[in-house]
Amino acid sequence: MTIRVLVADDHAAVRAGIVLILDGQEDLEVVGQAADGEQAVAMARDLLPDVVLMDIRMPRLDGISATRDLSKITDVLILTTFDLDEYVFGALRAGAAGFLLKSADAATLVGALRVVARGDGLIAPEVTRRLISAFGATAPPHGPRHVADLTPREREVLARIGQGMSNAEIAVALDMAEATTKTHVSRLLNKLGLRSRVQAAILAQRLPHDP
After folding, report:
1. Where, if anywhere, are coiled coils annotated (predicted)?
2. Torsions phi, psi of 80, nearest 5?
3. DSSP of 110-162, one letter per residue?
């Protein structure tokens, strides 16, 4: 299956470099390039890409605001730098499916797009601990009632999302089909009022015990 990618970055040279990397992969296709968030949202609605590779600091509409709209349409993989934590937290709340540092090499970028496209969340290892700590300190907690709304199987899935497992790994661990795993993930996100798998992972990390 070909993964259709929309690249959004206000620096033409950066976009060109990313496109060059992605065009070299048989399973990736760049379907569009956007120079700002407003253009990215408009193009995503028209092109329906599998993943939007999104910069944060852009003119007209920044990456966080764009992600808030895009997360209703498709998955968003944020490209960020290590000193922009406040933007990363905002993008997380907006529903981004993953975060990757701009210092990542080509293989890491390509792998991240594949991870997000198959429905798994991804956070750059360098910022995972900081994200969990900061988001846990500032985000409004989900009360026990929300987690109690989950079925026992959904709570098992949530716990494993918090451990960083992919859908395929959860399916093996819980002895069920991967399609069934995806269904459980979708349902628990809806019940918890979460926009993305990454938010679920951080919630699971904040719980004192397995849900």
Report:
1. none
2. -135, 175
3. HHHHHHHHTT--EE-HHHHHHHHHHHHHHSPPPPHHHHHTS-HHHHHHHHHHH
pLDDT(147) > 90:
no
Q: Which residues contact 167 (CB under 8 A, 6 or more apart)?
A: 118, 119, 120, 178, 181, 182, 185
Residue 211 CA to residue 209 CA, distance in Å, equals 6
Distance CA 92, CA 79 (A): 12
User: In this structure, which CATH number among 3.30.230.10, 3.40.50.2300, 2.40.37.10, 1.10.3720.10 belongs to the domain 3-135?
Assistant: 3.40.50.2300
**Comparing C-alpha atoms, which of 36, 31, 42 is closest to residue 11?**
36
Q: Stretch 180-202: mean pLDDT, rounded? A: 86
* Contact partners, residue 120, CB within 8 Å, separation at least 6: 166, 167, 197
